[in-house]
Amino acid sequence: MSSPYLSDDCIYYILKYLQDDRSTLFNCLLVNRLWCRETVTLLYKNPFNQLSYEYNKKSKIIFTFILCFDKAEILRFKNQLNQYNININDVNINDIINEPLFEYSKYIEYYDYLVINRIIFFWFWEYLNIKEDHGIVREFILTFHQSNLHYNIKSIPQNFSSLKSLSLCDINLKPNKGEVLLKSIANNCLNLRKLEFSKGSQIPIRIKKIISTIIQKQNKLEAFKIFVRYSLLSYIFSSLEFQKHSLVYIEFVTISFRDISFENLITLYNLKYLNFYNCDGLSIDQCKILNFASFKLKELTIKINIWNDKVTSSIIKYLGESLQKLYFHGDLTILIIEYLSLYCLNLNNLKITIDPEIVFSLIPYFKNLRISNLLLYIIRNFTSDEMMGNFAKNLKFFDVKEISIQFLSDFQYTIFGFKHTILL
């Protein structure tokens, strides 16, 4: 009895239903050519997923993508091995003669270079006993990424039109390299909901203009995060005004606000979440214009910034009326607590990271805070019985429904202090 005929569309939907069941998909490769072809596109959509834990499969995936190297890339890898006096027979590089059945790289849709780097590190250590800081590892990683992103870079115009989230992290901004990529993004990537940009070095004016164009051309940008050690805000702020109808989240990381006006920022009338992390250069005079902000914040985060308590208090004064959640990490003072009591009358949740000696001395001043939940992250693990006793006695000052305390060791504090997440 012959098996029933299945249309191509039916086969496709069957395979798509199985796309998260990789072991079953591998079996589907053996059915026939059609099943094999359609299955490969699903298997290699996210080929590195979970491989950071499946050590026995790491070598296979690296070998598979080496097969996809073109002749120039194969020759380059051979020369690198010879340059470092590494026996090429150990990795069977000489056996790469025939082209692979499929161009696997062009099916990739998810590409996390950090995960892939870890897999490559393991591969070199497992097969060549070479550590990750060896020169050939760094050179191979560049070749590997360039080879596998080749198809994606070529297809940027059609792929970027549906992209919703984009992180540009320390991108190579040399002419004809990263600049070309940024221009392609500016022309074709118009539907982002989240955009993140970070750069550790000076940014040329021409690049600032391209970044501004990317922001301006989005149809409905909702979240924006910028991490730049050098000034970029004069360009960014003027561009963000183009997104005032949709932007709800902004995070500033390691930004200098020196000589920067909030004139454009206050026009973002839908803004609900605002974060300042490790920033500096902000003055009281610059904060005054926040009194005319068109937005009503729900959440405000002020973490490890390099300015005095008067600046922090000014931000709280002008933006505190609508606040429901506040996270503060820095030098807590009586002035800041008083401003929280005066200007944050709708505050429900207050989260503070603080030194134990400071928090226990300031507890009496918390009595006027109108909050439901207080979460204290107390730095350092050592607190005396006397401190805890005084804290318990002063609980009567708190008109709070719930108090949570977490003590952070020095290691936990380091990790905690540098972790930041965008949540909409």
TrEMBL record:
Q: Which domain of life is it from?
A: Eukaryota
Protein name stated in the entry? F-box domain-containing protein
Q: Which InterPro entries match?
A: LRR_dom_sf
The family database entries (Gene3D superfamilies) matched by this protein are listed as:
Ribonuclease Inhibitor
